[in-house]
Write a structure and sequence with these properties.
By secondary structure, this protein is mostly helical. The protein has 4 helices and no strands. Helix 1 runs antiparallel to helix 2 and helix 2 runs antiparallel to helix 4 (about 105-120).
């Protein structure tokens, strides 16, 4: 359950920083991160629903904002976004490794192994 909450919050947090981002290359990385997070979240949700586990509600999608409309003190700078993206990626890899190690069932370990490989190949 913790994994699904982390994936949902990661997607919503990245979409917040995406709106503050001015660098085109960093925006592409953020888009890829959002897509990867949503893909992993959907995969985990499907598995949990099949297992009869109640899912927490996903956070609502953030409204779009123009970079120029965000006040200077309220927006994230590109260096901060890059550092947070690196930190979140490393934390995601560690979380997948931990879930693989703790999994009792082989299919669950394989699912987190696939998520780990996707994250690692993205890096």
């Amino acid at each position: 359950m913790d994994c699904i909450l982390r994936l949902q919050n990661n997607g919503s947090g990245v979409s917040n920083t995406f709106q503050s981002c001015g660098d085109g290359d960093l925006q592409e990385l953020l888009k890829e991160t959002i897509e990867l997070s949503e893909s992993d979240s959907r995969e985990l949700e499907v598995y949990l629903k099949e297992s009869g586990v109640y899912l927490p509600p996903s956070p609502a999608e953030r409204s779009k904002a123009d970079l120029e409309d965000i006040p200077a003190g309220a927006k994230f700078y590109d260096q901060e976004i890059g550092a947070k993206l690196s930190l979140d990626t490393a934390a995601g890899l560690a979380a997948c490794s931990q879930a693989m190690g703790m999994a009792i069932r082989e299919d669950i370990a394989m699912m987190f192994g696939q998520m780990h490989v996707k994250k690692h190949s993205w890096v």
